[in-house]
Structure formats: structure tokens, C-alpha cells
Amino acid sequence: MKIKQLSIFLQNRMGSLSNPLEALSDADVNIRAMCMADTSEFGILRLVVDDPLKGKDVLEKNNYLVKITDIIGVEMNDAPGGLTTVLKIIKDNLIDLEYLYAFSHDKAEKAILLLHADNIDKLIETLGENNIPIVPASEVYNL
User: Fold this and answer.
1) pLDDT tens digits for 8-51?
2) Which domain holds residue 88?
3) 132 and 104 housed in the same domain
């Protein structure tokens, strides 16, 4: 149920994003979703790849500091209000959401929302109780 996400710390300078992505590509590791957050000094690249352990190994061999974090994926309606429905449930249950990112896929009118919270188990339980479908990690890895 939990998805393994890779977080890579990068210096905020030209070319720093392309190098780890090229290393993954050269090792035949496929990126399923990604998000970049940056400041003036550094950035955090968050990736979901088809083989998280291989991806981590490849990046570490290329001298990147990599952290694996558990996140979850939920299926939401790919329509106005789809995201706010999920966020309202999270807010109403006092879950501290740390970050999120989303992507569409081949299911008509559906998108996948990737979430990280301070209490991932409570997040899973709460969303399940509210009939928000949790997307299995294997489904995200194999999109």
C-alpha cells in the first residue's frame, strides 16, 4: 500500500537536475512521478520510480544523497473539486499533510494524488474510512 519515494538533495545550479535523471535513465529506471521543490541554495527532487531500491542504489553510486520515504497514492476524480474533496477529509481529521503532488493516468476521469503526512498510517486509515481508494504501490510502479 505504501509507495517508496526517493528524495534527492541537489544544489540549485544549472544542470543539477539533468544529471541524476540521466543516471536513472542509463540504468533503465523509469520515473513514474516527480516533484521539485527549491530554494535559492538547494532543491529536493522527489521521485517515484518503477524500482525504488535500484533507483536509490544507482543514485548513491553517482554520489547523490538519497532518502527513501513512505508516501501513499489515492485515486481522485480528475475534475473540479476532486482534490478539495480529499483535502477536506484530511483537514477535518486533523492530519498534518506535509506535501502532495498529482498526475493523471490512463483511467478516464481519474488522477492519482501522492501524499506524505506526519502520520501515514492514520492517513491511510482515515482515507479508507471515507471511501477514498488507496492505490497499491505496485500499480503506481507499473503505470
Assistant:
1) 998 877 878 899 999 999 999 999 999 998 777 788 999 999 99
2) 70-141
3) yes
